[in-house]
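In pairs, describe these two lines:
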Amino acid sequence: HPAKLSQMRFVETFRQASPYVESLRESRVVILISGGVMANSKLRNNCLKDIAMLHQLGLQLVLVVGTSHQIDERLREQGLAFELVNGYRITDCAGMKAASEAAGINTVEVAARLSKGPSIMELRRQGIPSHIHQRPMMSVISGNYVAAKRRGVVDGVDFKETGEVRYVDAKGIARQLKHGSIVLMSNLGHDHAGDVLNCHTFEIGAMAAVSLGCEKMVTVLEEGEYAQVMKTVGGRTSVPLHDAETLCSDTPQMYKKGESLKNLMQRMKADTPLPLGISVAAGRLGVKRMHLLNSNVE
């Protein structure tokens, strides 16, 4: 019977995966969701379902969500131009307003999706109200975990209200992870003057993964972004860090212990896809495994 066969395959697959799941229990993992995926409700919701399952399996998750496509859409609706230079947005006042709005909407949407509970209550003992049990919702925490500074003028380009990540509050994030919460981070950082800056989510995710000593950094990409990565690595689905660094960096042999993420990114070739470059840099700085996934593949 097809249904029984499908059930048997599921059980067998789960048995095969159980040692791997057990080895990752309580491991810290940063999951980056690109702006393109966040802008597509179907891809976003499927991704969040998988994230909820990973949390239930015992992984400690930091979720970093992109906003680039939502920002672009808001600016287009207002008839406003925008510009990106080497993957970084020049953020003027209108761009900063759009970035803040997009971050707020994403935070609400992600928290709502991850709070979804069962459709019925579970009754432990019929007719006794004190024994009605409902599964608790997942705890999703966001906050001012990103310390940033203005990116300033780079090669004659003024990036205005675009931020550069100085550090993330690893201790604050770790406390929330220890208490069983998913930590949600956006594109927004704060400087020492209390101003809000628009940072690159890939940069935030990499800094979080390095600072927290994460086991893995997973980047979920839309199909076009993933295709660019696959083109750069020659279609290979598994690439050793040294080989990836050779493909991406002008000077891979010049890495020095303690070097910053910024310096590593500056040595990447100009045509390196940013998701791949940031993953290589995070690996060089100590993250054990980097995965780049196509959100269109289940």
